[in-house]
Automatic annotation (TrEMBL):
It comes from Gilvimarinus japonicus. This is Ribosomal RNA large subunit methyltransferase E. GO terms for biological process: methylation. The keyword S-adenosyl-L-methionine applies. Its EC number is 2.1.1.166. One of its GO terms (molecular function) is methyltransferase activity. Keywords: Cytoplasm, Methyltransferase, rRNA processing, S-adenosyl-L-methionine, Transferase.
Amino acid sequence: MARSKSSNQWLSEHVNDPYVKRAQADGYRSRASYKLLEIIKKDKLVRPGMMVMDLGSAPGGWSQVVAPMVGVKGRVIASDILPMDSMADVDFIQGDFTEDAVFDEIMAAVGEAPVDLVISDMAPNISGVNAADQASSMYLVELALDMARQVLKPKGCFVAKVFQGEGSEEYLKDVRSSFDKVVIRKPDASRPRSREVYFVAKGFKG
């Protein structure tokens, strides 16, 4: 099947992307690793010993960044509906966490430990219909926020990828209602023409 003009453009961008090349050289599973590295550096989000939950984790670029930072006394619990190759010091649970069985498995992995940070790089499969894609992406970030509210300890933090558009302003207000401080980041590794930004929320009100 012939590729569309837009998918050819994406492929060309991807192959020539300096962050893709850098990820291959540095051994990261995805270029998204650099987005999180920049956010962590700016917002000082991760310390040794923390418990971190990574939603939409496959292929593992974000878990790969966080696991060495939290160290042997910390933990990373990752989840995605897609498979993810195993990784040292990361507990991966495959499935849709809106399903009771998967949610229960995640909660069992968390146990009594308070979660310090929830990170979400979740995005829907893009259909090309902008309104539908935006609605799907907002649904996912709302799920991520709901999970964060259930597991975060007081003063915990939350990072989520958000596509600016219909519903994103209301979502920002919703996030602000649960956290002391919310900033919007556009990391250098985020493609300029992409509508994606990252909401970084600190100080969960609990």
